[in-house]
Amino acid sequence: MIFDRLARLDLVLPLVNPPKGNYVPAVPSGNLVHAAGQVPMVDGEVVATGLVGREVDLDEATRLSRQCALSALAAVDAAVGLDRVVQVVRVVGYVASAPGFTDQDAVLDGASELFALIFGPAGRHARSAVGVPVLPLNAPVEVEVTVEFAR
């Protein structure tokens, strides 16, 4: 059913990004899956770099957060199967922000809106949007997700 919804939305889960450090993409614990922070990558390479509000504009950053969210879902799918997700619990987003940029919440709306599109009411979640001076690989956005799954 969830994959039918993805198809209707013309969304495709990307391949799970290979870790760029000593960690795994997602870890199940109890009835939760914690997906590691995902930066906007395609084929193992970051697709955009720089600070939001300088090199990356708000619209692009919002699209990139959506891409990060899809990557997080791919990690969840590999860990427990996306069809077992019953609730998106928490989203934490980091935005590499130029001085004076204060729209981190708007950037993360890309990810949040994607979860709502895919999961409906079960996609509504708690969220933190944090501005930071720099992210790994000079990525503009990083998104991590915790979901509840059915056992």
Automatic annotation (TrEMBL):
Domain Endoribonuclease L-PSP/chorismate mutase-like residue range list: 5-143
Superkingdom, natural source: Bacteria
CDD domains according to UniProt: YjgF_YER057c_UK114_like_1
Protein name: Endoribonuclease L-PSP
